[in-house]
Amino acid sequence: MAFLEIEHLEKSFGPTKVVKNFNLNIEKGEFISLLGPSGCGKTTVLRMVAGFETPTSGSIRIDGEDVVGLKPNRRNIGMMFQAYALFPNLTVAQNVAFGLKVAGVDKTESARRVTEMLELIGLPELGNRYPFQLSGGQQQRVALARALAVQPRVLLLDEPLSALDAKIRVSLREEMRAIQQRLGITTIFVTHDQEEALSMSDRVVVMHQGIADQIGTPFEIYNRPATKFVANFVGTLNTIEGEVMDAATGRIRIDGAEVTLGRAVPSGKITLAARPEMISLGAYPGRETQVKGTINDVHFLGSVIRIRARVGGSVLAFDTFNSSDAPPPKVGEEVTLSLAGRDLLVVGA
Amino acid sequence: MNRIWSWAALTFGLVYFALPLIGMAVFSLKMRRGVYSFDAYTKVLGDPRFQETFAYSTVMALFTIAFGVLLVVPTAYWVRLKLPGLRPYIEFLTLMPLVIPAIVIVFGYIRLFNTSSWLPLTGTAMGTNLLLMFGYTTLALPYMYRAVDTGLRTIDVATLTEAAQSLGAGWTTILAKVILPNVLVAVLSGAFLTFAIVIGEFTMAALLNRPAFGPYLQVLGANRAYEPAALAVISFAITWVCMGLIQLITRFSKHTKAAR
Question: What is the mean pLDDT of chain B?
Answer without folding.
Answer: 90
